[in-house]
Amino acid sequence: MDHGEEAASGSERIHVRSGSLRAAPPATLHLLPCEVLASRPAPVQRFFTPAVRRAADGLQVSFRGRRLRGEEVPVPPGLAGCVLTEEGQGPAGGPPRRDLDRLLGATGSFRHFTLWSLEMLPGPDAKVLRALAWPSLAAAIHAQVPED
């Protein structure tokens, strides 16, 4: 089977360098309710340093003239938060690698992140919060039930 057929069948493998996980420095994360239509490095630290206001009912900040409301979300027990970056993508500005094996390295780690929403607090129905609740729910569903 040539690489084109394997890529078309979805046989891509992702590897994470375990040494990078241990050495990843602490990172500050903000999950914003917007999409950036670019895929390149950006000087985020230079342009995004929010002046967060702590209100009685959560966090508030302005982003490009819009009011955002947010809350700090902890990483659930038993899980680890890490920022992963693909390594070896070829020269900058060049075509992406055509390999089926992708190598990721951790560039940061986190124990919590700030989840932002437009105008109102994210709330328990936020997709991210539901996704973070799934591992403990799955463990409970699949746990051995004691016989009486």
Describe the structure.
The protein has 148 residues and is α/β, with parallel strands linked by helices. The chain has a single domain (13-36, 51-140), classed as Lipocalin. The protein is 22% helix and 32% strand. The protein has a five-stranded mixed β-sheet with strand order 2-8-5-4-3, with no helix packed on it. Strands 1-7-6 form a three-stranded mixed β-sheet. The longest helix is centred in the last third of the chain and has 16 residues, at 127-142.
Entry keywords:
4 helices, Lipocalin, three-stranded mixed sheet, disordered N terminus, alpha/beta, five-stranded mixed sheet, 148 residues
Topology readout:
Layout: H1 3-8, E1 13-16, H2 18-23, E2 30-31, H3 44-47, E3 53-55, E4 58-63, E5 66-74, E6 81-87, E7 101-110, E8 112-118, H4 127-142
Region (Disordered): 79-100
Protein name: Ribonuclease H2, subunit C
InterPro entries: RNase_H2_subunit_C, RNase_H2_suC
Give a quick rundown of the structure.
22% of the residues lie in helices and 32% in strands.
- Low-pLDDT residue intervals, each spanning 5 or more residues: 1-8
Largest sheet report: 5 strands, mixed
User: Can you tell me the overall shape?
Assistant: globular
Major sheet: order of its strands? 2-8-5-4-3
CATH architecture: Beta Barrel
* Element string (H = helix, E = strand): HEHEHEEEEEEH
User: What's the end-to-end separation, in Å?
Assistant: 54 Å
Structural class: alpha/beta
Helical residue percent?
Answer: 10-25%
Tally of structural domains: 1
Average pLDDT figure = 83
Regarding CATH, which class? Answer: Mainly Beta
